[in-house]
Amino acid sequence: MFENDSLTTLDSLGEFGLIDRIKGSVKIYNQETITGIGDDGAVVDSGSLQTIISTDMLVEGVHFDMQYTPLKHLGYKAVVVNLSDIAAMNATPKQITVSLAISSKYTLEAIEELYTGINAACKNYQVDLVGGDTTTAPAGLTISITAIGYAPKEDIIYRNTAVINDLICVTGDLGAAYAGLMILDREKRIFMENNKVQPELEGYDYVLEKQLKPEPRLDILRALKEAGIKPTSMIDISDGLSSELIHLCKSSGTGCRIMTDKLPIAQETLNVADELSLPHFTLALNGGEDYELLFTVSQTDYNKLMKVSDLSVIGFITEATSGYQLVDSENNIAPLTAQGWSSFSK
Amino acid sequence: MFENDSLTTLDSLGEFGLIDRIKGSVKIYNQETITGIGDDGAVVDSGSLQTIISTDMLVEGVHFDMQYTPLKHLGYKAVVVNLSDIAAMNATPKQITVSLAISSKYTLEAIEELYTGINAACKNYQVDLVGGDTTTAPAGLTISITAIGYAPKEDIIYRNTAVINDLICVTGDLGAAYAGLMILDREKRIFMENNKVQPELEGYDYVLEKQLKPEPRLDILRALKEAGIKPTSMIDISDGLSSELIHLCKSSGTGCRIMTDKLPIAQETLNVADELSLPHFTLALNGGEDYELLFTVSQTDYNKLMKVSDLSVIGFITEATSGYQLVDSENNIAPLTAQGWSSFSK
User: What ipTM was assigned to the predicted interfaces of this complex?
Assistant: First the structure.
């Protein structure tokens, strides 16, 4: 894929040559960013706010498959998963650093495509790329991103502060990113068997976009603020709803009760589930990579909550002794178990 | 090496199990660290200071060789190289995040040993480990660390502010880390040929320690402050003196003139150079990984400078048109060229 003679090897360019190229493509959006790439460290002025730091690592063959991940999308997503973590603290992301370990199969053009995606995410969310490290690797591509955000102390929302009877809310819909991954995986398998067959991706736009180009829900944070609501606890959904919900409840020392018929699932996701004979709720509960926000709100905020669009109330917080319960439309109760993606057991 | 039955696979522990273990071993040293591991992001209160962010990535087979790098030392060094970047901005490091991509050949015990080193560095330098990410990898070990430091705005020292006639100084001595690496490499080659031969490392303590367990020169920053000196520009020596010096001069728009007989080289390093038939100045100029500080000081501070121990004046800053010059004891002038480690051309 990258073995075209007109492409530039990273070898011929050297690390500093590559850094210069990257630096040349970077714009600064925040006046708090005093200096970015080019010194031993970046300097930011955080004034009287608190600083939030979050970091995520993406490894080729574990978190992404180069056979169906366009590099531009990969760069975009690598940034977004970090911004989503900052959003889940109710803070505003302002800077990122990007470190890459790159094997020799990648050319300069490939890395530039990756940075096109990184820079697009930075522009969309007005985040400054302020530093990083680039190094060679014996194999594959590893991307490590650290995001820095800021918030007034009183705005920060932790995951360990949910209170009994709080309403449990999620933004957007669930399971679409996983449905998208299943479609990409199916088409890859078909292609591996017969490489003359073109991938059949038409009609799957919604689930593919959720998988390849997720967005952090900073819009919902603004909407909640405008509605005068401060969630009591919050986490982002990277590993699947059930896993994240159990995290939040464990941290808060509570239980929860979720109504399956309140789980928001897009029609496009249901179609994929039916096509692949997957149970609907498996996708919604364990899918992962939706990067939606899961948060709790005091019941007294219920009326205000109804004015905020693109979110669903899916249950409520209970005492710890009740455990984690899943209730269906016929009032059958089942235990909710975490079956999120464990990167070690895959 | 790690295939003992009594050891714990990361698979059996899972990512969250591993994070819990890591979290349990971490101590917090700074009151500015509001929350560390366990939420979407860490929260720090930086009050009225400026924040410095630096990041470095270490890849197995590129930056370290598991055949002669004890994991404890690797963890220690991975932290130190980042603290050194913060020191080079004249700032105080306070927090780090640690991300690991780990292949299945590593056991829990191996990762715990790595964290023993990470935690030892944190304790020595009173730095808080506040977050990170752990993931599986198809092969090898990749460590990505981000360090956060703080300084009053007026204290921060950049690399682009050297002025003509400034004195050029380095801390400690040069080339020892590279000499240590050469010894480890030699013993590895002998061992590969005949694995009954025990490595011959006695008498090489100094150069081995500089290679395996470098220290950031935060002590010199304190000494300079006490002496009433603020360097005009500063950078840390990770890639070798000549490479870093050319960086600093290019950024500052200056040239430089270095006296070879002023270069500080330890006797132990000279011994290794003689033993391996390496030219002395090659080690000092291009060795890399010393993590000493290279900085410039106004000539008016010369008398104050003489009171600070463990540093050497090695030359002075010239106008850009003079280029980068190396002058030997007989006044022969040669051009200084960057032959630092380029991770892409190895």
Answer: 0.88
